[in-house]
Amino acid sequence: MQRIVYPNAPNEIAMKLQVSHPVYCNFFTPHECKARWVEYLWGMEKKSLYTLLVHGSKRFGQALNGISLSWESELTMRLHLVAMTVVCIAAYFLEVSLFEWMVLFVLFGLVMSLELMNTAVEALCNYVQAEDHPAIKRTKDLAAGAVLVASVFAVAIAIILLGPKVWDLLQAA
Fold first, then answer.
1. Would you say 107 and 157 are in contact if contact means Cβ atoms under 8 Å apart?
2. Is residue 128 part of a domain?
3. Which among 86, 167, 154 has a CA at the least distance from the CA of 114?
């Protein structure tokens, strides 16, 4: 089968489109090729703006529910949020630059996202195998290790960003 090349589409998407649309792109105008690529990205069906907003708001609500569940069930999530609050207060009083704020918020997002993923992995593992099993333990340990690595590097970067400012403050006192 001849490969179809869609303008501005990554190869993986072009290959998937080839399966969905076996007609060669040569027979379409560039506008039609782009329209087919957009259809693929939107799930091969045209949806109204209202449908997209309704489904989007449901998904947003589900995401907020996931964050709420993690807050209720995970001590480490609460500890990360407390640490984030303390760092934000310290950064505010130390008058960090805009770039430093951006770095801090990227780190906050990374650690919190990994904590949520760790919670999801643990919940799924507990559902699949309630009793202890070496593979489940390994999976949980790997997920927890990812959070630990991100947290350690976040603390190191926070020390690099905030340490000199704290040192200057202590020297002035």
1. yes
2. yes
3. 154
What is the distance between the alpha carbons of residues 69 and 115, in angstroms, rounded to a whole number? 12
- 51-103 pLDDT per residue, tens: 878 888 999 999 999 999 999 999 999 999 999 999 999 999 999 999 999 99
Same domain, 135 and 85: yes
* Type and span of the H or E element at 162: helix 134-172
Q: How far apart are the first and last CA of the chain?
A: 75
CB atoms within 10 A of CB 158: 19
Query: What's the one-letter identity of residue 70?
Result: S
pTM, two decimal places = 0.68
Handedness of CA 110, 112, 118, 121 (dihedral sign): negative
**Residue 94: which domain range?**
62-172
